[in-house]
Amino acid sequence: MGRYRTGAISTKATERIELGFLMKKGFVSKGKFIQGKLSWNNGNSAVFSSRLQYNIRDAVTGELIQLDYKIQLVSITSNLGNGMIYYFVCPISGRYCRILYLCYGSQYFKCRKAYMNRIYYPCQIASKNYYNLERLHSLESTLNK
After folding, report:
1. What pLDDT is recorded for position 22?
2. pLDDT-based confidence at residue 123 (cuts at 50, 70, 90)
3. Are 115 and 101 in contact (CB under 8 A)?
4. Which of 6, 20, 65, 93 could cysteine-pair with 114, CB 3.0–4.6 Å?
5. What is the rounded distance in angstroms from the CA atom of residue 33 to the CA atom of residue 58?
């Protein structure tokens, strides 16, 4: 018999903006003004330039809310002396992070630690018997990339 759902959300089940993905695709580049569009499997999308603009549907009323705000990027010198490391500055907590999440009914993309409830990694909420299979699946998807 399965367990009752706890309501815990994993990092894979949220909408997120990854700085590494943006850099690989050329959306973030030093000294350049670049525009782009992100879209997720659930039909939501975001347009960004120097600002992040997106629409979100309110969970209670169902009305469409338009948001437009700045997310700052910061560059820090690498501890190895090989260039710069880029981070988002979380618009809510001010922490440096590489991934911003949108979940738990929030209207703003923010870092994991800015949420009142935790955002878990998939292996953290896997059952004891399923943990090894979850880890194997994760490693296989990493190798396939």
Report:
1. 82
2. confident
3. yes
4. 93
5. 31
Indicate the DSSP class of residue 60.
Answer: T
What pLDDT is stored for residue 96 in this prediction?
93
What is the residue type of 62?
Answer: G
Residue type, 108: Y
For residue 103 the two structure tokens come to 């979940």
**Residues paired with 9 in a beta bridge:** 119
Residues in the chain: 145
- Single-letter residue type at 6: T
Question: Do residues 9 and 102 make contact, with C-beta atoms less than 8 angstroms apart?
Answer: no
Tokens of 123: 């292996």
pTM: 0.75
Q: pLDDT of 27-64, one tens digit each?
A: 777 766 677 777 777 677 777 776 777 877 776 777 88
Q: Which is nearest to 88 in space by CA: 10, 3, 22?
A: 22
CB atoms within 10 A of CB 120: 17
What is residue 68's three-state secondary structure? strand
Amino acid in position 57? R
